[in-house]
Every structure is written in structure tokens, then in C-alpha cells.
């Protein structure tokens, strides 16, 4: 059973990544599959299999060496699965690099639309349909409002998240909304001033749009449910309307660079970052989470949330985590409005110059980083490729016996010879 572990008197310290999710899966996944507590979908099996071989010799290890001093380093191949905590971060970096020069050069706002938890039983049965509806109607809520009130076509980037801090089912979308857009008639770039928004209006509009789509699915017989008749379905809708549906808006971010850095926190990231894992002991795993219902300042609702720990047995942790594996061929990041077709945005309205400066800044920072395996900090030069090692043995043998350290001496001489040959070629 999961149990909350309240922090000690001192605040939990944010530490560097010490534990790997793959190690916990490697230790207990086979045992869990013998008697799973929840049905395991095929794409969930695939995701776990990818995590288990990610950055191992099964996928390949590239060796690089400095042509001047001979210092060697290795680069392990990634599984590139969207559920993998390592690969999801790399995808985020690549995505941010691609999108940074396409957005409008105006302030943007971070907006969160959240579905009531009473919808969770329906979501589990109709995940693909309801996720699509959520992303579409949340974007339409802002698009329609800006079109009618300001006569502009705004741009929206929507990112679907299905998890809360405790990895429970908490379906919501993070949206970056351009606080302005292209004038519908003149096509000129306009900025919205002031930034006041009537929450109650948008909340009602969002709820009505979503429920209209839900009713349409029910009437067509495409909504998987356990309602006995239409009357029971309508009573259910009434229950989920007892409270306003939640919408959260952050203040406008003035510069595109701020937008890029901010949105990177939410796009494509895995549901559990490995640096949040604080302990792995036998059959139990513990990770940090923020408790937004328990804040440091009880009076101020915007004060910092307290950090606590959650300890789970693998029989509960695995289904808790696997419910957030992305559905096959489902796009978690979608674009609406002016951002649905970036090519149609006039080049003079995009963030070209600032994005170029940011890209150069990030590139230089990466090249000077001592952790860059393709760069020798001592010699201030790029390393050269030497060899790729791939372990092609059966999966069971790899798990039980393969140790990369035991094989280093077998390729060491070959590495040195190739480095020497490369040095001669470069010198020539």
C-alpha cells in the first residue's frame, strides 16, 4: 500500500539523480507480471521493455576519444520512448530548439485546464476520445473568446498531462497562449492590453463545450459507460457541475526566451523525473511530491507548497505509473489557431533574432560543459568517433551476466590503435 511519509523538521533537499527507474523495473517487473494488480496493455509492456534497455549495450555504446590527449568517453544509445524519463527530457530540448523561432514575438500566458476527478471512470474507458476533446475544447475556449472580443486569431500550444503530483489520474492540459495574435481583417500583429480575464465566463464556456461533446458521444453510442439509461447519464452530468471547472492563468511572459524556457518544463516530459526518487529499498520505492493543499504560509494560498514523500510497494507503484504511458500514435503536443500552420505567420512577426541569440547561448553553454562526452575540456577540442559496442546476446543473458567493465580491456587496445590512426590522419 502507498503511504505518505511526512518530511522531517528540515525541508527535503533537492538532490541530484541517484536512482534509476530502470533498476526498479529490472528488479521487480518480471515478478509483477506473474500476478499484475491491473491489466497490462501492449503499449505499456513496450514502454517498460524500452526503459530496461535504454542506455545499455543492448542498444549500443559509442566510444569517442580526444585526438590530442587520448581521453576517452562513451555515449549510450537512447530508447526514444516517450515514457522514458531520460529520453523525454532530450525530446523536450529538441522540441524547444525547433519551436523557438516560430512563435509570435509577443507576450504569452501559461494556462491550465483541468477536468473534474468525477470524470475519471469515464476517462479510463474512453481515454483517447476524451483526451482529444479536452485539448480541442480548451484551445477553442480561448480562440473563440479572442476572436469575438478582440477580432484576432491567436496561437495556442497545448500539452496533455494525465498525472498529478502523487501520480494519480489527474487529467489536465498546459497551454501556452499568445496574448495577442493576427488581426482577422488586416493580418497585423496585435497585443492584448490589459491582461484581465473574467474567469467565470471562461470556466462556463469550457465546461459547456466539453459537455456538449460528451453528450454527442453518448447519443451516438460511442461512449463506453455503465449508465443504465439517458436519465442516469444526465444526473451524472449534474453532479460534475456542482463546482466550477478549474482554470488557472499565469501572468503574461514578456519575452519569447522566457516562453521557450517555461514551456520546456511541461512539454514531452515523463510523469516521474528520476531526480525525485529519494529511495529504493527492496520491494519499495519512495519519491518526492508537492502537496498543494499544505503550504508553508497557511494564509497565503500562493505560498510555496510543502514537499513530502510517498512510499509505494512495486505492486501498487507499477500500475500507478503505467496508467500514464502515452497512448499509441497519440500526439501529446498539439497546435491550434495561428500556430496550427506556422508557415502562414509572416516572418517579421516571429522571434527570429531573439531565438537565434538564445540558440547560440545554449550551444556555447553545451560545448563548454565538462559533461559533454564529445568535447575535451582540457584540450578545448572535439573528440573523434572510435567504435560502437553492441551486446547482441539474448535478453536473459544480458540481464544476468553482462558487465561493461568486464569488457573494457577487450577493446582498450583497439581503441588506442584507432585513436593513434585518427591523430596521424588529422596531422596529415
How many β-strand stretches? 17
Q: What percent of residues are in strands? A: 15-25%
Distance between the termini: 66 Å
Q: Please trace the helix and strand order, writing H or E for each element.
A: EHHEEHEHHEEEEEHHEHEEEHEHEEEHH
Sketch the major β-sheet: 5 strands, antiparallel
Mean pLDDT: 82
Percentage of helical residues?
A: 25-40%
Name the shape in a single word.
globular
- How many domain units? 2
Largest sheet, order of strands side by side? 10-4-7-6-14
The multimeric state of the shown protein is: single chain
* Poorly predicted residue ranges: 3-16, 365-370, 399-413
Q: Please, how many helices?
A: 12
Radius of gyration: 25 Å
Describe the fold and architecture.
With 428 residues, the protein is of the alpha+beta class. The chain folds into two domains: 1-8 and 19-81 and 273-298 and 309-323 and 394-428, no CATH class; 102-271 and 325-341, no CATH class. The chain is 39% helix and 21% strand. The protein is built from twelve helices and 17 strands. The strands form five sheets. A five-stranded antiparallel sheet has the order 10-4-7-6-14, with helices on both faces. Strands 1-13-12-11 form a four-stranded antiparallel sheet. β11 (277-281) and β12 (284-295) form a beta hairpin. α1 (21-34) crosses α2 and α5 crosses α6. The chain is globular and about 70 Å long. The model is unreliable at 3-16, 365-370 and 399-413 (pLDDT under 50).
